[in-house]
Recover the amino acids of this structure.
């Protein structure tokens, strides 16, 4: 009876967390749309409360537009923008921030309700605090990223800060998903295989690095720098990857170097995930692991195909228009999140031993 009560009381919390997972996925996709439409620097202030609603009359719109006119992006890139053009990019940045606020509300209100209902077990307190801290930190990093594009001669945010914002968002996504799994998945569904778990952790490390380089690709708008495949502008190992005077900064600033690393990591991930799938098929256990062991392989194949398509279609980009490249890039980002979550799923189900503690 006590066990039943515990499971029943935890299920609403798990559902709440899974709703949060879905909303974080949408938020990351909105971040991608914001970047692809060049909207990220349209709002030049971080007004947590007063920025909840967009301008409500023409005078307020002109006031926001005047603030944007002071930015390097306007003066160096979008100097021919009309008020209507500004409204289009303003919408996506505003909606991205609005959705972040909505996530905060969706997390806060049920949290208070569950607290009053005394649904939280003592073991949930620490993960819950970490969850809220990660959310707050992500908001702060987002503003630091935006601020990096509002000074000097910057017309976009700095790719390194974009990568930081993206990786922290992925971390928040994974932590929320893991927390939900810890409340939903029965312990008898967990299987033991130290070798599979070790390989999975290694793959996750490579994938995190790959996601960083995906953000570098996006931040530098590097797709068009080598819109060829399987070669990179006619070379398997392109020249000049470390040829500039920047030294190791080529690893984060040289578009061709970023291409080479991003593609190389994709091939490495494919090989490692094939190996993981083979090992998973040797693991005997509950149907839950048997039904889902193939997810990472299917997703990494889809991810590579979408990555290739995005690069090849990048030459068809039309400024200020949403086209096939933008759809490909968004799907590429969505599948990346699904791939990451599928590996977190396998990591949860496969432990060093069945009694291993969770968060």
């Amino acid at each position: 009876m006590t066990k039943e009560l515990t499971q029943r009381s935890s299920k609403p919390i798990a559902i709440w967390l899974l709703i949060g997972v879905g909303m974080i996925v949408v938020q990351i996709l909105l971040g991608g749309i914001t970047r692809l439409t060049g909207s990220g620097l349209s709002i030049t202030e971080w007004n947590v409360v007063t920025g909840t609603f967009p301008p409500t009359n023409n005078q307020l719109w002109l006031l926001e537009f005047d603030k944007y006119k002071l930015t390097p992006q306007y003066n160096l890139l979008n100097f021919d923008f009309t008020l209507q053009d500004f409204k289009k990019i303003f919408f996506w940045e505003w909606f991205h921030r609005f959705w972040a606020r909505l996530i905060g509300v969706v997390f806060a209100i049920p949290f208070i309700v569950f607290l009053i209902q005394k649904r939280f077990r003592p073991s949930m307190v620490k993960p819950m605090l970490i969850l809220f801290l990660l959310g707050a930190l992500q908001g702060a990093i987002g503003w630091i990223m935006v601020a990096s594009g509002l000074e000097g001669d910057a017309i976009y945010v700095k790719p390194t800060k974009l990568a930081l914002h993206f990786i922290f968002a992925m971390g928040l996504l994974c932590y929320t998903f893991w927390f939900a799994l810890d409340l939903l998945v029965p312990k008898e569904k967990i299987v033991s295989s130290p070798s599979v778990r070790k390989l999975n952790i290694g793959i996750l490390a490579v994938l995190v690095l790959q996601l960083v380089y995906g953000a570098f690709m996006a931040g530098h708008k590097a797709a068009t720098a080598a819109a060829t495949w399987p070669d990179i502008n006619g070379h398997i190992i392109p020249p000049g990857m470390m040829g500039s005077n920047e030294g190791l900064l080529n690893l984060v600033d040289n578009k061709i170097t970023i291409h080479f690393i991003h593609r190389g990591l994709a091939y490495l991930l494919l090989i490692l995930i094939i190996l993981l799938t083979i090992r998973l098929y040797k693991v005997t256990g509950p149907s839950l692991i048997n039904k889902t062991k193939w997810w990472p392989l299917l997703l990494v194949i889809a991810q590579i195909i979408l990555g290739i398509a995005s690069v090849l279609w990048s030459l068809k980009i039309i400024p200020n228009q949403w086209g096939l490249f933008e759809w490909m890039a968004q799907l590429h980002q969505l599948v990346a999140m699904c791939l990451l979550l599928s590996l977190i799923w396998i990591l949860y189900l496969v432990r060093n031993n069945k009694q291993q503690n969770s968060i």
